[in-house]
Amino acid sequence: MSKLSQTKKSILLTALVIFGSLAIITFNLQNSQIVFVDQEDTYGVFNHPFMQTFTMFIAEFLCLLAFFYVKSTESYKNQYQEANNNGLKRINIFLILIPACCDSIGALCIYISLNFLPPSVNSILTCGIIATSAILSRLMLKRMYTTKEIQGCLLVLVGVAIVGISGFVFPEEQKQEDFKKQIVSIFLMLFSIFLYGFQYTIEEKYYKTYFIHQLELIGYEGMWGLIIYTIICISLTFTKCPQVLDNVCIPHNGEFYFERADYYFQQFSQSALLQFAIIFGILSISVYNTMCQTVTKYLSCVTRALVDVAKIMMIWIISLIISLSTSSSNYHWENVRLGAIIIEVIGFSFVVAGEIIYNFNATQVEDDEEITQNLSLQKG
């Protein structure tokens, strides 16, 4: 497998942070919209986590179309020939159904929780993927970690914990019902952390075992996800909610439903801002997932999870600016109490320190291995 230069690594990781941040911000922008489809509509809330997951898979499927173009290039054919000579075979696309299922459930958990948690806290909780990726890659890939790498991961987790408690130490005024929704959202996020840790690890295993282009893996995950969520969204459009869930479901003719695909498209057609947020969200996810897979292929699944942490700072800063610059409750994304902000800054400091320690050490280890390999070749 060819290696990336340090410049390309820096560009790759920077793009991962930027587009990962934009993806979360645009989906939160969608959730902030109130769009009435006609004069009789009294609901107007854009509450479509299932359809949002569906659009995420549209973004991933677009990568498959890009892959078909890449597959026709001379560069790809040379890579395939080299891999074939090294004993790497093409992957069975049914194996990609495994990470696609993890992505299907994990993304849904995230999009549901985005309705009830600040975007920065939501993203911070996903940093737990660092721990699950490290544990699972140790078990499944037999990866060894240095003391510095372990210290980096631990610092990140401490930062995650500090920021996570900020909203509870300095809570904003809210109803008891909203507090319960936040607790449920946190548990959903913790569940998604395990799923994504497994997904990252199994994807890295695929890259080591088979010849597969990153666009190919994302694209087929998108294909499976679209098949799954087409069935789910159509089914849930006609599935009534139990009464206990009425406050989180979508009303229609006096009944409440888990999803309403028709209402999603009606709202989309009525708002230019919503159209922008959805289309730009799809494009951001396409680029972001391509960057993620490239990191997993050329670096590691834990590096992907750890560097992904840096996007939290950008999300937090943008969300805080939006929350402070508008009086609309729909755009009140972050806890703006001074105490909460101070705690979050401290937590972010731990996260950044952990990221620097881990990546600096990982780069040194990689360079040492390359030097040793070159010396061995020279002696041979």
TrEMBL record:
Signal peptide: none annotated. The chain crosses the membrane at residues 12-30, 50-70, 91-114, 120-141, 153-170, 182-198, 218-238, 272-290, 302-324, 336-358. It comes from the Eukaryota. Pfam families: EamA. One of its GO terms (cellular component) is membrane. InterPro entries: EamA_dom. This is EamA domain-containing protein. It comes from Paramecium pentaurelia. Residues 49-163 form the EamA domain. The keyword Transmembrane applies. Keywords: Membrane, Transmembrane, Transmembrane helix.
